[in-house]
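re: the backbone from monday

yeah here it is again, tokenized this time
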């Protein structure tokens, strides 16, 4: 079946730096006479992002607009404008539980496929920060809390089953989920045209394609992603979807949001921190400083999982409404499932960010190509190991031991 892409409404037009000003002026956010400066700053794979500033009144705002196709590929890849609704609705839902960890949404326009949100230019995209070797002391606690609160409060453990199913309906997101189903769970494990890797690592990639045990395990993970509507997920929680300062964390870009297995958000975050860990060999040349930074990244993994577990357990015990939340052992077995899933999903994310369509700057910006290819092969090995051994890796200490060299 072909992708059921929604056609843009007849009123839709992609904005440019001139038309976005006319649009914003109608919202009465800026004063009538404000001299607005505009720049399109989108560097992601999918959308336009306009930064609009009124310097004289020290006010600014972001307009994010979906294109009727995926920007990274072009018009040959049509994509629903409804992703602006998924993104803005998720941010508003998350703001009910973690208002300090998301930008405020000010306005949503269905016909233009856009929404207006807080300007976070005072923050830095986490991936850029980790490539520069900057430490963020609150990041782990914030991300653990973020995932715990948003998932618990949208799960059957908390919501009445009618309310949960109503919310599931609002977040049925077939087109964006299909991208993940293909790009994360399928294409990298087959000789597919979307894959993108240097010929120098082809042997390692072919080894992965010929690994039937690996494919079998990925099939199980994909099926979980397709079917397990545990809670509302961000759906693309990588280090390019998080804005940071040393004091503040803001999660952005949840256009892939849907109801799925909770371990998916955690696994994506873990994978991107692990990719950062691996690539530090090329980014931080002094071995002492590199070890210090890698040890910070390892602490970030540990603390993210422990703060997730702690917060989720507290909510379960104090606010669980489902009768089985009171039954001893249920919480522990659910957290055990989330952990195993997270390890497996992390493995898929590490692999797809290395040889799939959408890469990470952590690895791709490594100038010494021999080193870049070696690290990419290491990432493939690591991802494969996580997927195949996820049920044996029972805790974070064991996961870290797989790659951590003290
Ligand atoms: N609220 C915001 N404030 C400031 N800059 C933003 C904001 N949202 C996005 N950006 C900028 O736009 C870039 C692309 O945004 P992103 O949401 O990742 O787009 P895409 O959906 O295309 O991946 C980000 O890397 C960041 O530089
Ligand atoms: C054709 S979309 C590829 C890839 O891009 C998305 O990331 P982002 O929106 O943050 O740039 C998502 O990870 C998709 O898998």
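seq for it, each position gets an aa:
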């Amino acid at each position: 079946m072909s992708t059921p892409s929604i056609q843009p409404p007849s009123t839709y037009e992609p904005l440019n730096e001139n038309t976005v000003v006319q649009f914003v002026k109608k919202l009465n956010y800026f004063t009538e006479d404000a001299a607005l400066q505009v720049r399109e700053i989108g560097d992601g794979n999918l959308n336009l992002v306009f930064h609009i500033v009124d310097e004289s009144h020290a006010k600014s705002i972001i307009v994010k607009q979906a294109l009727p196709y995926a920007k990274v590929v072009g018009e040959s890849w049509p994509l629903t404008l409804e992703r602006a609704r998924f993104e803005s609705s998720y941010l508003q839902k998350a703001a009910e539980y973690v208002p300090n960890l998301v930008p405020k949404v000010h306005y949503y326009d269905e016909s233009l496929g856009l929404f207006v949100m807080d300007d976070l230019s005072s923050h830095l995209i986490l991936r850029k920060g980790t490539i520069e070797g900057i430490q963020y002391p609150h990041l782990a606690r914030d991300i653990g809390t973020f995932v715990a609160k948003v998932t618990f409060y949208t799960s059957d453990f908390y919501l009445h089953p009618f309310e949960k199913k109503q919310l599931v309906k609002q977040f049925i997101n077939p087109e964006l989920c299909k991208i993940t189903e293909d790009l994360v769970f399928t294409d990298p494990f087959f000789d597919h045209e979307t894959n993108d890797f240097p010929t120098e690592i082809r042997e390692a990639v072919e080894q992965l394609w010929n690994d039937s045990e690996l494919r079998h395990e990925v099939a199980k993970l994909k099926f979980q992603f397709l079917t397990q509507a545990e809670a509302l997920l961000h759906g693309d929680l990588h280090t390019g979807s998080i804005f940071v300062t040393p004091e503040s964390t803001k999660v952005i870009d949840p256009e892939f949001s849907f109801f799925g297995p909770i371990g998916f958000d955690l696994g994506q975050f873990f994978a991107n921190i692990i990719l950062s860990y691996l690539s530090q060999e090329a980014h931080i040349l002094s071995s002492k400083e590199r070890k210090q930074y890698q040890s910070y990244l390892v602490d970030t993994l540990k603390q993210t999982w422990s703060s997730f577990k702690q917060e989720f357990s507290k909510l379960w015990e104090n606010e669980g409404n489902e009768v089985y939340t009171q039954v001893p052992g249920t919480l522990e077995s659910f957290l055990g499932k989330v952990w195993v899933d997270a390890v497996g999903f992390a493995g898929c994310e590490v692999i797809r960010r290395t040889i799939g369509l959408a890469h990470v700057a952590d690895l791709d910006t490594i100038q010494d190509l021999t080193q870049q290819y070696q690290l990419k092969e290491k990432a493939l090995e690591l991802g494969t190991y996580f997927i195949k051994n996820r049920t044996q890796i029972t805790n974070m200490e064991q996961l870290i031991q797989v790659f951590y060299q003290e």
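Residues 287-319 form the longest helix (33 residues). The pocket of LNRAV4D5 (ligand 2) is lined by residues 44-46, 70, 72, 179-180, 183, 236, 240-241, 253, 357-358 (CB under 6 Å).
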